[in-house]
Structures are given as structure tokens and as C-alpha cells.
Amino acid sequence: MSPLSLCVIAGDGIGREVVPAACRVLARLRPDIGMIEAEAGWDTFQRVGQALPDATLATARACGAVLFGAVSSPSHRVDGYRSPIVALRRALDTHANLRPVRPLGGIGRPDVDLLIVRENTEDLYIGEERSDGDTAEAIKRITRHASERVGRVAARLAAGRGGRLTIVHKANILPLTDGLFRDSVRAAASGWPALTLDECLVDTAALRLVQHPEHFDVLVAPNLYGDILSDLAAAHAGGLGLAASLNLGEQCAIAEPVHGSAPDIAGRGIANPAATFASLALLLRHHWRDADSASRLDAAIDHVLAQGIRTPDLGGDASCEQVTRAVCDAVLASR
């Protein structure tokens, strides 16, 4: 295995098109990084009985870095099936989800450049539910450890940007859980005294993200709120088809485009690889700490989209292959 290695999981649907495209781009940027293919997803589950096979998890742990495409889910409950991406996030302890919102190639609002940092391991997403007749309950778990941990990530990133961090919560209604999250993040952020630290109720944050997204720089939120707000904010930057994300841990990271497996267009050669490329740039910048390669890739994506080389979902007529070739050429030209 190379000193730096990437576990490549294409998954289902268009993941099998956009992930190989991103691997071609990475080979131009960083030929020293080894790439090891592994499998996960619904098709994998149907073949081997595991959506995230043990061998895949072992490869991901050994590499410490994963490029994950997209997975399909069964339309009904299937015994033994669990979301492979959720399982992978937990297994690798990638506790912070980074969702940047900025226009790519002139697509989206030019005045928006924000980052949502979402706690990635707890809240209602722990999946502990129970029902009794006509009543159902779900456990919302917030811990000081997880909240302080994501607070440190958010504060560090905010200090490197505009210097403003907004804590999103609903502590007026949930004083124990959301109150603990808010107070823990405040305590963690105290290590960066130059930060401008404020807080915002989640409903108000949603309103401001719609009306005045330029008000924000970095937002940090519990899992559920961060999930909802990051998809909402993506509307200012071309939608989910251009939305990149990085699941970041202390030792491991998972780059993951936000879009789904899109079975309706899979195999037609028109999938948009831009979000996967942008997710790869996040991995380069925040996990491998290679800001130069990340900036070159971001600039290449912007250049290609601004030139009008766009897939049909963005109003263009380019194929996934044409966009990929153009980004590869732009990356090579930037050396």
C-alpha cells in the first residue's frame, strides 16, 4: 500500500460513473496516491448479504481516506440491510460533516460563501426508536464529548476563514439536549478567543439562510439540524447536484457527494461529476492537508463550468466524460 492510499467505493447507480471520473482527476493531481477499489451498497448486499462487507471496512480503515459515490436503498424494509454510508461514518468515527456552500463556475449566488459543520455521530440519528401501539418514540442523544469535538473543528475552520462562528440550536425548547450542545461548543470555541461567536435558533437560521445567506460564515449544528440546513443552503449554489461534503474524523475522512444514486440516469453517460470532484478537493484540503492541489482542483472545476461545459442537469449538453476530460486538462494546465 502506498504511503497515502484512497479506498474507492463507487457504490450504486451513477456512483459507478462519477467516482471513476474523480479517480482520473486525482491521478493527474497526485499520482503518488494509491487507489484501492472496494464495494458497498444495495447491489453488494443482494450479492453477498452485507451492504458494507467486512473486507471493505478493513480496506477503508487501512487507507484512512475514502471516496464514496452513492448507494441505492431498498424501497421497503429488508432484514439485515443497514445504510453502508452511515455504518462507515460510525466505524471510522468521522464525527464532523463539512458542507461548503459557494457558487461553482458562476452557478449560484455570488455573494454566498459559507460552511455548515454538522455533528455526525449522534442526535436523533443514532436510530434508537421504539413503539407501543399508537405511540412511537425516538431517542435524541447529545453528549458533551461529541459536541465539544465538533465545536473544535468548527472553531478551527472559522478561525481560518472570516472569523465568525454561529451555533445553531433549539435550546429554548430543548434546554437539556440542545442546551448541552450550545454550551459545549461555546466551551470548545473558547480556545480561539479572536472568534466572533454567536448563536441562532434553528428556525431563525432557516429563515436567514433563505433570505440573507450572506449573513453567515461558519455554522455548527447538531446532526438533524445540520442535515436539513445544509440541503436548504445548497439551493444557493446550484442545488444538490453540485453539493460536496466531507466526513472528517481525527484519523479518517470520507469524501462524499451529496446527490443520490440517480438510477433514472445511471448508465446514460450524463451524470454530473462536479460534486464528486469538489468532495475530492475537500479531502485533499482537510485530510491530506494539500491546499495547493485542492485549490488547483477547485479552480479547474470553476473554469470548466464557467466555460459552459456542463451536464444536462445544469442546462448543458456535455457528457460526464467530456466534463471529466475538461477538468483533467485544466488541472494539468495549472501545473
Automatic annotation (TrEMBL):
<comment type="similarity">
    <text>Belongs to the isocitrate and isopropylmalate dehydrogenases family.</text>
</comment>
<dbReference type="GO" id="GO:0000287">
    <property type="term" value="F:magnesium ion binding"/>
</dbReference>
<dbReference type="InterPro" id="IPR019818">
    <property type="entry name" value="IsoCit/isopropylmalate_DH_CS"/>
</dbReference>
<dbReference type="InterPro" id="IPR024084">
    <property type="entry name" value="IsoPropMal-DH-like_dom"/>
</dbReference>
<protein>
    <submittedName>
        <fullName>Isocitrate/isopropylmalate dehydrogenase family protein</fullName>
    </submittedName>
</protein>
<feature type="domain" description="Isopropylmalate dehydrogenase-like">
    <location>
        <begin position="5"/>
        <end position="327"/>
    </location>
</feature>
<dbReference type="GO" id="GO:0051287">
    <property type="term" value="F:NAD binding"/>
</dbReference>
<dbReference type="GO" id="GO:0006099">
    <property type="term" value="P:tricarboxylic acid cycle"/>
</dbReference>
<dbReference type="GO" id="GO:0004449">
    <property type="term" value="F:isocitrate dehydrogenase (NAD+) activity"/>
</dbReference>
<dbReference type="GO" id="GO:0006102">
    <property type="term" value="P:isocitrate metabolic process"/>
</dbReference>
<dbReference type="Pfam" id="PF00180">
    <property type="entry name" value="Iso_dh"/>
</dbReference>
<keyword id="KW-0560">Oxidoreductase</keyword>
